């Protein structure tokens, strides 16, 4: 009875996670737009100084970035052209990194963008999962599996950033374990849930809490909160979608199905002989 109840709850929760977690992911990009719009004079001036150009060009780039992100958000959440929306976000992110990256910490930005990309890939996979499989494009299955693989590997960059911070020994061991299990796709759903717990500890309950509400600017604090939601959304979608075909879990599932079919064949054969 209890097992049936748990399975029933999982069937009800799974569509909700896949349906609403994309909004968690996109909240980060929405807050980026809101911050740029509210602080347009400041943001445009700062970008002009970094690019060493006229202030007008700084405001022009800010407007371009805002419109590009708004268009991407609409395509991802309002249509079935999420791939086009993600492409727009990537174009904006690449341009932004070329102009404004501090090259001495290039690898930090690389892992940060990889983490964002992982959440976006999980978002695309979630939206595809919610559709009827008859509506999937040609070669949709292989594309879907590539999204799960790429999303899982990109999300694993979070643990590398944690290790680079030089956290306490226990949390470093936890980070190494999660890195191995998530990247290899071993009990991926379980360890994705555990990652959310570790993420809440790291960002909310440890000394990193100041990155969330330790700012005088309310919008900036909200932007960091939305980044936390983006990461949580990515790992919760991973917890529902699993590691996919190209993971240890996928290999074990294929092997189990193969043995189950072989066992059924033996039963049928023995019954026929009888």
Automatic annotation (TrEMBL):
InterPro entries linked to this entry: Surf4
Q: Does the keyword RNA-binding apply?
A: no
State where the protein is found: Membrane
What highest taxon heads this organism's lineage?
Answer: Eukaryota
TM ranges are 20-38, 58-77, 98-124, 144-163, 170-201, 221-238
Record keywords: Membrane, Transmembrane, Transmembrane helix
Q: How does it sit in the membrane?
A: Multi-pass membrane protein
User: Which Pfam families does the entry link to?
Assistant: SURF4
Q: Kindly indicate whether the keyword Transmembrane helix belongs to this entry.
A: yes
Q: Which GO terms describe its cellular component?
A: membrane
By sequence similarity, the record places it as follows:
Belongs to the SURF4 family.
Q: What is this protein called?
A: Uncharacterized protein T02E1.7
**Which organism was this protein described from?**
Drosophila suzukii (Spotted-wing drosophila fruit fly)
């Amino acid at each position: 009875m209890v097992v049936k109840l748990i399975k029933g709850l999982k069937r009800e929760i799974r569509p909700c996670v896949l349906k609403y977690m994309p909004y968690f992911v996109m909240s980060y990009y929405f807050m980026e737009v809101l911050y740029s719009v509210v602080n347009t004079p400041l943001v445009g001036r700062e970008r002009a100084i970094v690019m060493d150009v006229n202030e007008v060009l700084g405001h022009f780039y800010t407007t371009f970035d805002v419109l590009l992100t708004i268009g991407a958000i609409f395509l991802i959440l309002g249509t079935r052209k999420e791939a086009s929306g993600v492409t727009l976000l990537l174009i904006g992110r690449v341009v932004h990194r070329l102009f404004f990256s501090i090259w001495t910490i290039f690898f930090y930005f690389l892992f940060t963008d990889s983490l964002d990309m992982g959440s976006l890939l999980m978002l695309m996979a979630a939206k595809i999962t919610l559709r009827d499989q008859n509506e999937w494009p040609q070669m949709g299955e292989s594309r879907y599996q590539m999204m799960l693989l790429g999303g899982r590997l990109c999300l694993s960059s979070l643990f590398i950033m944690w290790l680079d911070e030089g956290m306490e020994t226990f949390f470093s061991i936890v980070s190494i374990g999660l890195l191995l299990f998530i990247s290899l796709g071993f009990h991926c759903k379980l360890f994705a849930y555990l990652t959310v717990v570790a993420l809440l500890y790291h960002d909310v309950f440890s000394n990193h809490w100041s990155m969330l509400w330790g700012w005088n600017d309310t919008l900036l604090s909200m932007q960091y909160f939305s980044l936390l939601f983006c990461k949580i959304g990515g790992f919760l979608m991973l917890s529902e979608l699993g590691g996919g075909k190209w993971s240890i879990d996928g290999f074990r599932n294929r092997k189990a199905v193969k043995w189950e079919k072989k066992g059924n064949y033996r039963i049928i054969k023995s019954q026929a002989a009888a």
